[in-house]
Amino acid sequence: MAIGVNNSTERLDSIEQMYFKRILNHIKNVLKIDVTQYKDSYIMRRIRVRMKATKCKTFKEYYEYLKSHSDENEELAETLTVNVTEFWRDITVYNEIQKIIDEWVADRRIRKIRIWSAGCSSGEEPYGVAIILSEAMEKHKRKLLNVSITATDIDREILAKAKRGVYQAKQLKNLPPQIIEKYFIKLNDEEYMIKNTLKKFVRFQYHDLIKDPPLKNMDMVLCRNVIIYFDKKIQEEIFLKFYEALNPGGFLILGKTEILHGEAKKLFKTYNARERIYQKPKE
Questions:
Q1: Carries keyword S-adenosyl-L-methionine (predicted)?
Q2: Which of 139, 163, 207, 267 has a CA 20 to 30 Å removed from the CA of 183?
Q3: What is each CA distance from 118 to 185, 190, 248, in whole angstroms?
Q4: Domain end point (choices 38, 56, 80)
C-alpha cells in the first residue's frame, strides 16, 4: 500500500493535502528516503515533530520552511530514521537471547553460529549480542567457535557510524561496569569506543529489507522495532524473508509491539510470546 493522504487517519483539507504530498516528494527526491512503504500515520507524526520544533502550524508553512532552510533537511531525515539508542534495551529480551546463545555455545557439536541484526541502526544491537557471544565463548572455553554477526541497514551514514563504534556514556547505562571496562575504551568523560576484540565479530553492510533478498543460513534474526513502520502487506513479505533466512530451529526476535501475521504466523512456532521470540521448526 503506497503512502497517501487518502488512507491517512487524519483528515486534511485540499490545500494541506497538496502540501503534505509536496513534503513527501521532497523527502523522496531531496532526502533520498523512500517512504512509500511506511504507514501514513507514522510519516505524519514524524513530520509533525519537526513542525512543532520549527513552530510551523500547517504543512504549507513547514514545506516553505523546509525549502528555505537547508539545515532542516538533516533534521527531518534524522527524525524519519528509527534509531536504537541504548545497549541491552529491554533487558528481559536480552536475558532470553543470552539463554539461547549460552545453550548453543555449550553444545560442542555446534561449530558455527550465524546471526543477522536487521535494521541495526547505529550498532548497539549487534555489538550488544556480540558481548553475549563473547562472554559465552569465554565461559565454555570455545575460542575456536566460528561466530559472525551481520548487521544491516539502509542508512549508509549510520552504518559508517556503527563501524566506528563510538557511543555516549548514557547509551551504556544498562551494561554492568565490568562489561564496559572489558569491551570499551574510554575516550573521554562522555564517549566510549568498542574494542577491536568485539568488533571482529560484527560485519556491517547495506541491505534493504523490502527490495533485497534475505541473507541465508542464519541461526538467529533480530529485527526489533523496525517492522511496525511498514504497512501490513510489506510486513508479511518481510516475515517470509526472515523465515527463508533462518536455518531449521533458528530464532526470529521482534520488538515488543510487533507480532507475526499472514503466512509466517503458520510457519513459525511461538518460543516466547511475551518477548516476541519465534522459532522456525526443526526438520
A1: yes
A2: 207
A3: 26, 28, 19
A4: 80
